[in-house]
Each structure stands twice: as structure tokens, then as C-alpha cells.
Amino acid sequence: MGLISSEATAHQRRGILATVIGVVIFVCVVVGGFVYTMTAPRAMSDAELKANGAYLFEAARDIGDFRLLNANGQPFVPADLQGHWSLVFFGFTHCPDICPTTLALLKQLYDQLEPGLRRSTQVVLVTVDPARDTPDKLLPYVQYFDPDFVAVTGEFLDIHRFATALNIPFRKVMLGDGSYTMDHSGNIALINAKGHYIGFFKGPQDLARLKATYRAIRAQAD
After folding, report:
1. Rounded Cα–Cα distance for residues 151 and 69 (Å)
2. What pTM does this model have?
3. Angle between helices 98-112 and 135-145 in degrees, nearest 10
């Protein structure tokens, strides 16, 4: 009788343990689904994207050919914008406000992206002041924000043509003391993995909106 009772008790315990495990698995699935729903990129309409500062073109635009230099003195050509998505910002090292602010923002965005998304994202700074922003000046400047960021310079006319292809205006402004500064757009151009210009993030940007819109665009494209 005692043996039968012990077997019954053991059977009951196994039944209770199986029930508990089943409940735990169910709760984990529910919680996991909730967390995924809350954190997964949310699809946005064109109107929502625009309301959050992201503008997509109806059709991707071919940038055309260009030949610039990266901060290591190596050619920067159309192939360098292929195989990953690129966030391209035009600025210069002597910029007192918008450039360091935008690069710091892009650093925050870059760090907060999921690993896979981050690996397929390239941040590029193109100088609008090549006379002063030689490769040896650009490299430490951009690496201050992130070692993975790419800095680009080149001949002034080549940079101007590249900026024009991305609808980024800039101009030289003389100052009273004989020096100069550069007036330029704060927009961030968005290049897809085919190297095509598909839209831009209008400046000034906000981290939460930039992150939400970029993740939404990538989720819809991928």
C-alpha cells in the first residue's frame, strides 16, 4: 500500500511539475510576444514619416559617378555606398554647432540600433570645406565620434557635384575678420544598399524620431 501511495505521490508531483513548466513556457511566450511587439519597428505611412522628419522619394535616384577621398586617403567611389545603407551628412571640422551636434546624434543612433541593423549601416561625413579639411584633419575628428564613421573629402567641385546630387546646398560665407565659415544644410541623406538616394531626414533631428523612422524604413525595405 505504501509503495502504491509513493508512486501516486511521485506521479502527482510530475504532473504538477509539468503543469508549472507549461505555465512558465506560456507566460514566456506571451511576454516575449509582447516585448517583440513593443520593440519591433512599426510600419509608418508617408504622412507619418514626414511628420517625424523623414522624407522618402517616390522613386530611388541614381547619384551618378563621383570620385572623392576618404580620411585614409583612399578613393571614395559609388561602390563604397553599396552593400549597406548609408546616412550621409555634409559638414566641416570648424563647424561650431550643427556638425558636432548631428554627429553626436548619429553616434547615439548607431549605438542604439540592433546589432544586425548597425552592421548594415554606414555613417558618412562629407566635408564642405576641403581646403581646411584634409584627410589628416578629418580622421581624428570623425573618430572622436565613432571609429566606424567614414569621413570624406576631395576637390571642391567634386564635392559640390556630389552634394548637388543629394540636394545638399552649401556656400562659403566671409566673416568680418577676413576668415570664413561654411553655410550648409543640416539634412541627412539616406542611401540604400544599391547605392541609390531614396530620401532624407530633415534637420534638426531628434534621436527618438530619427531612430523610429530609420528602423521603420529599413523594416519596410528589408
Report:
1. 8
2. 0.80
3. 50
